[in-house]
Each structure stands twice: as C-alpha cells, then as structure tokens.
Amino acid sequence: MTSWKIIPADRYEVAVVGGGAAGMTAAIAAARSGARVVLLERGDRPGKKILMTGNGKCNLGNRDLKASDYYSDNMAVAASVLERFGTEETIAFFASLGLMVREKRGYLYPVSEQAAVVLDVLRYGLKREGVTVLTQAMVQKVIARREDSRTLGEESCPPGYVIRLGDGRELWAQRVILACGGQAAPKTGSDGSGYGLAKALGHRIVSPVPSLVQLHCGEKYCKALAGVRAEGTVRIYREKELHADLEETGEIQLTEFGISGIPVFQLSGSANQLLAQGEKLRAELDFFPQYGANAYEELCRLRLKLVGRESVETFFTGMLHKKIMGVCIRLAGLSPEQEAAKAGEDRLRQVFSLCRRLPFTITGSHSFDSAQVCRGGVSMEEVDCQLQSLRSPGLYLAGELLHVDGRCGGYNLQWAWASGHIAGEAACAGKIKDRGRKEKC
Predict the structure, then answer these.
(1) Contact at 8 Å (CB) between 441 and 80?
(2) Distance between CA atoms of 30 and 32, rounded to whole angstroms?
(3) Tell me: the pLDDT tens digits for 305-315?
C-alpha cells in the first residue's frame, strides 16, 4: 500500500490551483471566509498575466456590464455569477484591498493606471489574509480522496483531495479550486495544463480557440493595405448565408496578414469557433456605416455628376484612405491612371459598392500566443451556480479555465474577479453545505 507522506502542515481547507486574477481573488475570498488556504502557482510569482492587461494600465472592469457581452455554453450560470458579483462588488473588493479605482468612459482603471499596482494589492491581500503561497508548484494531478481510498489509507489521509506536485510533494485539501487559466498567452503560464487536471476529474472540455485576436485573410491585396487604420463596420458571413452572422463597428486595422482592431477582436472568438467547425467564412468591410442605403446612393449620384477628364484616382480622392481607394479601384477592373469619364458609370459604381463591401476570406487567426483569452474550456453545463463541479463534489472552477469569454473592455477580468470570488466563498462554505445547508444561486 502506498504511504502518502502528508503531515498536518500540508493540510488545508481550501487549495487554489493557479495564481492568476481568478486564483488570487478566490484565495483571498476563501481566507476571508475563515478557511486555511494555500495558493499553488507554477511560475516564480503569481499574477504575471495581469501586468499585460489594458496595455499595462489594467482595465479591470466595465460600468456597462451585461450578460450579453459574454459567450458561454451555459449563460444562465455565467449570468448568475456576474449578477451576484458585478461592477459595484468589484470596486468594493478592490477598495477593501486599498486600491483606488476611477472610471473613464465606462471603463474601470486603477487611479495610478498601473497594472503593477493591481497585482501588488492582490499580493498584499494574500499576505494579509494569511494565504500560504507556493510558487514553482507544478500540479501534476489532483486526486479525489474518495476515488483513491485503496491506495491512500484511512489514517494517512481523510476524505478530500490529494494534490501531487512535480517535485514529489503532496498536499491535502478539503476543497480545491481550479483557476489555472486557459491557453491564451502561454508564456505567462496559461498553457492549457488546467484542462488536463479538470478532464482527469471527469469534466468535458470544449476545444479552445483563440479569442480577442487578429484574423488572417487570404487576399493578396492585404499587403497593399498594411498599416491603414479606418473607422468602419466588420461583417462576417457564412459561406451559404446571405445575411451577416456577426457585426461590429469601430477602428479597423488592416495588416499584411488580414484584419485587426477592436471590432475584429470582438468577432474573432466566434469566427475561430466557426472555422473549427468546418465553416467557410468571409468578412466584408463597410467604410461608410453611418450612411443608410438611400443616403449613400445620393452621395454616389452627386459625385458621379462631377465626373470629368481627371483620372479615376483623382475622381475618388477625398473619399477614403488612398490605399483603400486604390484596392477598390483595381478590384472594379479599373486603372487609377485612366480617364474617369471613359471608365463607365457601372465600373465607377462598382468602386462605390466596394467601399461598403470590401471582401476578405477568413482563413484563421494569430495563435494563442497573441490571443488575450480563449473561447472554450470546461463546460459550464458541468458546474452549479456556486461554480462547484457537478462531477466531483468539493471541486470548484473559476476564471478562464471555464467556457466563458467576454468582449474587450474589462469584461474578461470582471469574469475573473466574479468567478474567483464566488468560488472562493463557496469553497469555504462547502463544509457547511455538507451538513445540510443548501447554497442558493
């Protein structure tokens, strides 16, 4: 029989696996609720990914918080979490840590506008609440005690979870919170290893794809457009459908590999998910979204009245960026140098049309290395409203490990704080729940 060398000092009421935004929040919440907590971080210090957020300013939340700004396979549970721990709760949580927060156009930032300060107050919070932090702690396996009674032995290890580390150490915890992150930005520690831990405990993993990331397109004229930024609307279509499935407006960035910018980021998770399902997608860029159909037709009609002996390039000067107009002119089968009056009204109208429907074939995206978050992860169908596993009682999940992702603008960090706090408090209350108290959503 295997003898587990777990001494009393290695026993905790709650163990949190993963020292990111969700994990640190969960550990603080559990400790404040009275639990003896250990935080296990595989890196040399917790919270590295926080330093990358908001271009180093840490957009930690959003005043305009709606469930419709998130995607999940079980929005009822996700919405319940966000309703119970929303913007005001986030502000109050950070105030309790000493962080001053201010709002800019609905976006929440630390007054210092330094992501490092957000990380600092979280680390100080861990210390203040007495959380044991173990760094360079690579978790290899989480074993439910009830599933391994043959090897563990009744006297050496009570019911709960054994956590096996890569260096041979073993810890025991009554409750475990998996907050290991997803697969985005793997250099910060989010390399997808948490999926294996969750799968070994009975969970189904929705295959992750990069989200909030640049999209790749197949057109040769991408290189000609590289470096251009322009306001417009991005619409993504499935191959066999005429209506737009997805649409976002804002500043579009055109690159040598395809399209980028906030509107593209917002659509990228859905696009990559559809591509993974075998769908063929195209995007169309509308650089005049502020015009209705009739108003744009009138604009075109008035400009066509001005056509003369100038070149086609000169005729269209003043509408859009020269690189965009050059591509639209050539796609319409015209030469920039030819005389506009001889080009024909149909060809000129085709140029006007392309200014509103410039086509791109979506072939993929940048990798997880460039993605801000993932779409996919542990199915939300397999956790309750307290984020406790329906497969392994006493196991909780939080953060990006779960199949929930949000828009740009602080929404994903809001999910990290909310899910971490809900899971942390619930994990501490779990021992009460076992004695007959039913937790409500």
Answers:
(1) yes
(2) 5
(3) 999 999 999 99
Round the CA-based radius of gyration of the chain to a whole number and report it: 26
Three-state DSSP string of the chain: CCCCCCCHHHEEEEEEECCCHHHHHHHHHHHHCCCCEEEECCCCCCCHHHHHHHHHCCCCEECCCCHHHEEECCHHHHHHHHHHCCHHHHHHHHHHCCCCEEEECCEEEECCCCHHHHHHHHHHHHHHCCCEEECCCCEEEEEEHHHCHHHHCCCCCCCCEEEEECCCCEEEEEEEEECCCCCCCHHHCCCCHHHHHHHHCCCCEEEEEEECCCEEECCCCHHHHCCCEEEEEEEEEECCCCCCCEEEEEEEEEECCEEECHHHHHHHHHHHHHHHCCCCEEEEEECCCCCCHHHHHHHHHHHHCCCCCCEHHHHHCCCCCHHHHHHHHHHCCCCCCCEHHHCCHHHHHHHHHHCCCEEEEEEEECCCCCCCEEEEEECHHHECCCCEECCCCCEEECHHHECEEECCCCHHHHHHHHHHHHHHHHHHHHHHHCCCCCCCC
Mean pLDDT across the stretch 154-159?
Answer: 60
Q: What is the pLDDT of residues 362-375, one digit of tens each?
A: 999 999 999 999 99
Separation between Cα atoms, residue 289 and residue 390, nearest integer Å: 46
Nearest to 6 by CA among 159, 176, 173, 170: 170
